[in-house]
Every structure is written in structure tokens, then in C-alpha cells.
Amino acid sequence: MKWYKNRAMYLFGLMGFLGGIVCIVLGLWLELARYHLPLSWWSVLYIHRTDPMIFVVDTSPLILTAMAALIGLQFSLSTAIIQGKKEWEIIFDSFSDPIFVTNENDQIARCNLAAADVSDFSRWNPPNTGEFLNHCGNASRMASVSISRRASTRTRLSTCAS
Questions:
Q1: How many CB atoms lie within 10 A of CB 12?
Q2: Alpha helices (H) along the chain
Q3: Sequence-separated (6 or more) residues with CB below 8 Å from residue 108
Q4: Are strands 154-160 and 99-102 parallel, antiparallel or unpaired?
Q5: For residues 80 and 158, which has the higher predicted lDDT (pLDDT)?
Q6: pLDDT digit string (tens) for 132-141?
Q7: Which of 41, 108, 144, 160 meets the CB 3.0–4.6 Å disulfide criterion with 126?
Q8: Phi, psi of 148, rounded to the nearest 5 degrees
Q9: Is there a contact between 160 and 140 (Cβ–Cβ < 8 Å)?
Q10: CA distances to 30, 68, 160 from 128, in Å
């Protein structure tokens, strides 16, 4: 995904820019009301000359545009990650063989629907490996593959061959 082709980033950036314009108008209105000045160019210039902090308010559209664009980029990236996770779960659950993923303590971290059906355990609250193998039957039928996620963490993907 090209970051500069991200529609959400541009929409969030536009909303940030419009919010910054509202900040400028609101800040000028408050300063005009504070000094009891009429709405004119002379009044706006006078406020800028007497109170230099108004220049900070003037930069709010730029700052809010950049912040909102980054939020829009993060929003679209998280949407893509959630979509990929859903696709992975659909593929993982489509296997007819029971499959479970264990962590370094041999506790089942995840299992597919077939594993939940075989073990009579909840899919979202899986048992430890020993309980699962008792339900699965003979431990010698279990095929195990090690998957290294990081050097310090090892995950094992296991299936019970029928």
C-alpha cells in the first residue's frame, strides 16, 4: 500500500485542516472580544503585533493537518491488519485436521474449529497440551512443526493426524 495513495489519510488531514481553521477563527474572535475591537484587518494586525502568541494559533491548521493525516494512515493500516487477521482465521478454521498453536510453556495459545470440536473445549479458552492430547488420542499420531517468531520465543504448530 502506497502511503501517498491513502484516502483515509487525506480525509483525516482535511478534517484536521478544517479544525485548525476553526481554531484560528475562534482565537481571533476571543482576542477581538477581549480588547473590544471591531472585526477588521486593522484589528487582526493589531492583535498580531501586540500578542505574538497568536502566531502559534496561526500554525494550528498545519499541525492539526499533519497529526490527523498520521491518524488516518494508522487507521487504514490497522484496518488492513484486522482484515488480514480475519482472512488468516478463515483459512486456519477451514482445515479439517485439528490444529493448535502452543507457546513456549506448552500451553495452547490458539486452536482451529476442528481442534475445538475434537477436544470439546471452547475455542477461545483452549486447554493445555496434555489435556488436548488425551482427547486427541495417541500422542504418536501428533505431527509437530516448530515456528520461530523471535530468537527468545518459540511457537509450535501441531496437528493430530487422523
A1: 22
A2: 7-35, 41-50, 54-58, 60-94, 113-119, 129-136
A3: 100, 101, 102, 126, 127, 128, 129, 132
A4: antiparallel
A5: 80
A6: 665 555 444 4
A7: 108
A8: -95, 115
A9: no
A10: 64, 44, 15
